[in-house]
């Protein structure tokens, strides 16, 4: 019984990490009708920028001057700004040039951009941040940052003195809060409704006076911020961040969003949870099952796409000719 | 859009058999310099060649060159064959360069295979490396575990990879666009993981001791002494690879100009319209998958039998991305372009070996740049020109 | 020609690329030692290791140690020719390693090669060296089958195999300390696979209970489902047969789940500074076996450590760095046997019959070309440092390991 309960908690938390990336996919797809494959890499970039900002700010003594919560918020702010900029860059290089071409071009270009982000993270954090961390450490407390293209330790910023349960509850809570906030934003605010209008019909939206360009840019900014927070939670949960995890989260997030229903924000959470439960239970209950957990998860994905392409809670669309 | 009134200006003397010979010779020398020269020389030559190619294409001259080649078909063919026979001999004392040449031909085949799906039919398949892996593992299991002759194993590898293409093709018939991409991506990722977890296939250790192809007692990967000169062991194998690549280029070109190639393009343009025209979409799509898988499978089998070792790392998602990159860089749905793309990317990879930390970054940047600046690739697909078949004289075709 | 938006994108892209190059290119990389082929008195050795990619720290440290030994030999003037090294980066990829091996055997001045951290890469290059009849001495890859009657005498290995490395660990933990209930976790690499295989066999031979085996993909970050499983299985000890990253995560998340009462033991792949940094306080009490003898115990070994420190290399000495140094000594010894004009054929015989006393004791090879020099010692993490077990507070009883 204890085993079952523990595994359910594990699955929910893993599901949260997938969901956090998947809502990025859903948001971009909902508004722009494009798959932004580098969403996973943007999230990982967010985690890295928090770690980098922590390295710099902690050595500047921010934690001794400001209360802990405020300092963490400053870190989050920095990461959000960086991720939002990256979101804009993504739009600029990988989405906008392909507005009028085949829908597959942005998919390919965002995959390429994802590779670039990933490799730059691996290279820059080896060469730039590492000496910084060394310099910072020599001046005071040792920092848990290390070099090479190896994984980096994520600083403990969520409930640093609390228990693991507290941390897990905060992660689940923030994920739910983000989903709720996004739902309210999309359905109750003017900008959110404009986003939905654009996703329905871009030309018509323009005609009724929506500044399409501005809204699209705003979408990428919001997406960037969401992914920054997502990366922060994912990194804190895993306790380390790997520069090459972006592709994994990208694929899993994309898969989660598709399985749940690409155009529906809730699809992200349904899909994310489904994937996570499949993985955790295969890994936890089948002897030597861990090796097969991802394979089975992908088989489930293929099954869903082939037999229920509109997703679990997506609406079935009939193709107009 | 382009070609506004600028008349194609190719020197008149090139419109002759001699001209064809000259162009062929220039291409040959360029290939040799790029593949065999030191890092800096090779990269500068490559860059210049690409710029010249872009210039020629902008002026519409590449199409002119193509038409000259078609006009003097026989000269072009014979000179190409002769040069292709000479080429490996020039590498006889350069083991490492011959190795690069073999890898180029292998990826050329794989890229041609992917082109059927990605270029002709506009189905972005993210699993070409998986198809290569099936070919490679087939030949490895059959020769190393069952001790079969490597030619029989190659034939069976063709069958298994074709079958696998069919199996992967069937579920993807129900899907399109993103969904198709995601399915193939999932299958590619699952494929590598499955390889890692099957002890019979060596798991992460892979299979070593794959038999190289041989003709009778004459092994194709072995150093021979010809006229007192010891030639690199890769040379006989390089001949085989060039032969098969030439065969594949021929097949791909025939398919492109055939009714099937046309119907694949129609599906890419508009599936509904294609259906209305009476094209059997399912059959055509499966055809694209199966023939593509066979091309990739043969590439993988040749690769495995050359290195005598196959492992799961060689057929992962990054390798698929690389093959996709080759097709896009060279030019989708253009047989010559795709092979050019494979050549350029493989050479860059090998020459940048010292900087292998930057390798993935370079791929990413190349793919991004090509997509933004020149989505059609270095040698874009040509406007279909059927007039030539019916009329003797070259009709100037309209652009886009 | 270009659409306006495309044109701007291009401009931005160029700016971005330039910025990237500046950011990433700060530290230049030195190319492999290319040689001028005119010099008549040059002998070349090939060296392969992963200098980039996931195992770059180990690979680069090994390269440093190897070059250090060769430089010292050149400076000593004992050889009538200059020894040059072709350094090849295999990036832990078989395909890359195979191409590198082609590059080595293509050079006519090469008389011997040494290399490989990854068994998979070794599998791919062995046929190439065998076919070129150039001897390959393996200093790091531990998979059982690499040295074999088929590969003898071209392939020799100065590093222990997985079995030679795991047995001492099992002897201490099972026979001396009495841990009987085991759970094995490994990564699906040839390294992890080789260790799992050997350790499973040892457990069966020693009559222990194996409560489960789990294999994880490289890059896995969430071990919690497995940990939950270990918890409910009642294992008293966890064996990790893989490399450092996954090991430290597993230990970390075990600590998080309150499982400090379960012993954590691993193979030399987890002996690394990274284990301590990622694991932080969770790493406490983890055990690792390290092959060879502690270099700091002998004067020659201490001299090697001092020289390495004096070299100012950025990569710390890893578990197999002394083996790379030892490999250099073995090759130098063989070169001496071959006289003024060493050839690959002469080197094959010289290496297989060599007897070299270096920093790790005396190395000779058995009838398969496998080293006879087997020794190992255990390390434990104490206060964020790897400490030799015999000298730790765990051995004196000040601190206690989990109950068996």
Structure keywords:
heterotrimer; A: 321 residues; mainly alpha; ABC transporter involved in vitamin B12 uptake, BtuC; two-stranded antiparallel ribbon; 2 strands; 1% strand; B: 400 residues; 2 domains; 68% helix; disordered N terminus
Order of SSEs of chain C = HEHEHEHEEHEHEHEHEHEHHHEEEEH
The major pleated sheet of chain C works out as: 7 strands, mixed
CATH structural architecture of the largest domain in chain B: Orthogonal Bundle
Q: Outline the low-pLDDT stretches of chain B.
A: 1-6, 390-395
**What portion of residues of chain B belong to β-strands?**
under 5%
Question: Mind explaining what this structure looks like?
Answer:
The complex is a heterotrimer of chains A (about 325), B (about 400) and C (about 400). Chain A has about 325 residues and is an all-alpha fold. Chain A has twelve helices and two strands; from the N terminus they run αααααβααααβααα. Chain A has a single domain (about 1-305), classed as Orthogonal Bundle (ABC transporter involved in vitamin B12 uptake, BtuC), CATH 1.10.3470. The N and C termini of chain A lie far apart (about 55 Å). Mean pLDDT of chain A is about 80; it is low at about 135-150. Chain B folds into two domains: about 10-90, no CATH class; about 95-375, ABC transporter involved in vitamin B12 uptake, BtuC (Orthogonal Bundle), CATH 1.10.3470. In chain B, about 70% of the residues lie in helices and about 5% in strands. In chain B, helix 6 (about 130-145) crosses helix 12 (about 280-305). In chain C, strands 7-6-8-9-10-13-14 form a seven-stranded mixed beta sheet, with helices on both faces. In chain C, strands 2-1-3-4-5 form a five-stranded parallel beta sheet, sandwiched between helices. Chain C has a two-stranded antiparallel sheet with strand order 11-12. In chain C, about 55% of the residues are buried. Classes of the chains: A mainly alpha (about 325), B mainly alpha (about 400), C alpha/beta (about 400). At the B-C interface, helix 5, helix 8 and helix 15 of B face helix 1, helix 3, helix 4 and helix 6 of C.
